[in-house]
Amino acid sequence: MQQAQIDRLRAAVIPAQQLFIGGRPAPAISEARLDVVSPIDGQVLTSIADGDAADVDAAVRRARQAFEQGSWSRAAPAQRKKVLLRFADLIEQHALEIAVLGVRDNGTEIGMAYKAEPLSAAGTIRYYAEAIDKVYGEIAPTSGDVLGLVHREPLGVVGVIVPWNFPLMIGAWKIGPALAAGNSVVVKPPELASLTLLRLAELAAEAGLPDGVLNVVTGRGSSAGEALALHMDVDVLAFTGSGAVGRRLLECSARSNLKRVHLELGGKSPNIVFADAPDIRHAAKVSASGIFRNSGQVCVAGSRLLVQSSIYDRFMAELLDATAKLRVGDPLELTSDIGAISSKAQLRKNLDAVAHAEAQGATRLVGGEQIRVESGGNFMAPAILTKVTPTMQVWREEVFGPVLAVTRFEGEEDAIALANATPYGLASAVWTASLSMAHRMVRAIKAGVVHVNAYGGADITVPLGGFKQSGFGRDKSLHALDAYTDLKTAWIAL
Question: In whole angstroms, what is the distance from residue 229 CA to residue 231 CA?
């Protein structure tokens, strides 16, 4: 990956985008459109179709037809594997093009976007392709005159709604196992970042995925998203996003066909540094990256930092040094460590969160202001807030921006109480040289992921999901297949 290649792709004109239904582009029935505004410079990049309930219905009907026709749903797992492996190869071949397209759309720094979006998506599709012909049914332990079989079958039509921070990576976590299991899929991308998922659908068709098996309906959540959630012929809905929308989707399930709903919602993840952390400087550097990369727009971001009092001053000095070395800049420049905030609305929310924290008594140690205003884009200096208490909003509620809330703790029990003092339970981290301490903290922290002497890096082989109001259901790993398959018992008298 070279800067010249990135600059060439940056200059490419992006044509007006259509929906992708039945294996080909299609206009919205209403012909309505939405502008795509780049967070890098505030300029209109292109437009997408503003799909609504009629378009969702068309996509679901094509998905159902494809599922019932059976060329994918009843294909041998080995055949689905071949197509998905070609699909993964095509994503990889077009990785830089896709990464630049996504950065222009949502502002993630190119170094992170390249690995976390197309390369991660390709790896995810490949993982489930390789797995699907290795997942077996069961034979029950019955008497000799009965044969009890447990079959695993695809559910039918899967609705997928993904967020704007990593639409391709998170989309692949859901699309990969759903397709591998034999389902048809209708994706509603985020209106702030739809371009890469439209490109993904084109590559799936090129790889040989049958028409109608993967469909993409762009548009607003209030219209296209809600229509997908309410549709009577969608069997399961997989969602990553805010708690407010997750609650709305559960209501839609109850109001429609009681479709299964899998939710990965917000996080307010604690990052806990004990005095015996093996390498204070390394822990500080990783902690800075764990909240500030992608401008803090990461569901598992370590947005709450807990530092043991005996090393607090030393650690904070290292943290400030690590933060100062992070360059906020044009996300399509390889020298930028942090890119743009996804939208002006999100930037305003971030700035307001800092101001509100200060009003509640927190101290702004560094950052927290808009920068690079002359660019026309949405850029913010990473903010570190100290003297934060568990009663403050910035400690309990997700900001989804480059805002770090810091507090001290005295001992293990204090750390556990502070870590769990939030409605969320998505991710966490513990820094300690004590194996016993690490195991005790893994058990005590109410979160779906506990990192030890690291923050991030958990790959596709392990599940991701939350406790408490961070949702339920799991993305990644073989466990994700459970969301897109059903069990059927055959009880056979011999």
Answer: 6
Average pLDDT, the chain: 97
Per-residue model confidence as pLDDT tens digits over 312-324: 999 999 999 999 9
Q: In degrees rounded to 5, what are phi and psi of residue 311?
A: -120, 10
Identify whether 264 is a catalytic site residue.
yes
Cα distances from 420 to residues 271, 361, 400, in angstroms, run 11, 21, 19
pLDDT tens-digit map of 345-397: 999 999 999 999 999 999 999 999 999 999 999 999 999 999 999 999 999 99
User: For residue 155, what are the CA distances in angstroms to 20, 217, 475?
Assistant: 22, 20, 17
| Range list of H helices, 94-189 | 95-106, 110-114, 120-131, 167-180
With beta carbons less than 8 A apart as the criterion, state whether 421 and 393 touch: no
Cα(235)–Cα(395) distance, integer angstroms: 37
Return the number of other C-beta atoms located less than 10 Å from residue 281's C-beta. 15
Indicate the burial class of 314 (C-beta count within 10 angstroms; 0-12, 13-18, 19 or more).
middle
CB 452 within 8 A of CB 443: no
Cβ contact 465:446 at 8 Å: no
Tell me the chain's radius of gyration from C-alpha atoms.
23
Distance separating alpha carbons of residues 27 and 87, to the nearest angstrom:
25
**From 109, 299, 318, 398, the catalytic residue:** 299
Distance (Å, whole) CA 328 – CA 347: 14
Pairing label, strands 467-468, 424-425: antiparallel
Residue 1 has what pLDDT?
A: 82
Query: What average pLDDT does this structure show over 53-66?
Result: 98
Residue with tokens 């991660």: 120
**What element of type H or E holds 373?**
none
CA atoms within 13 A on the CB side of 491: 2
Residue 73, phi then psi, degrees to nearest 5: -65, -30
> Which pair of structure tokens corresponds to residue 281?
């400087």
- Euclidean distance between the first and the last CA atom of the chain, given in angstroms as a whole number: 63
Specify the pLDDT at position 114: 98
- Dist CA 225 CA 232 (whole Å): 14
Going by C-alpha positions, the residue among 33, 36, 41 that lies closest to residue 14 is: 36
308, 347 Cβ separation under 8 angstroms: no
The CA-atom distances, in angstroms, between 95 and each of 45, 100, 200, 412, 420 are 20, 9, 11, 44, 39
* Beta-strand runs (E) in 224-371: 236-240, 260-264, 270-273, 304-308, 363-366, 370-371
Of the residues 109, 264, 318, 398, which is catalytic? 264
Residue-wise pLDDT for 127-147, tens only, equals 999 999 999 999 999 999 999
Q: 3-class SS at 165?
A: coil
Distance, in Å, from the CA atom of 319 to the CA atom of 340, rounded to the nearest integer, reads 22
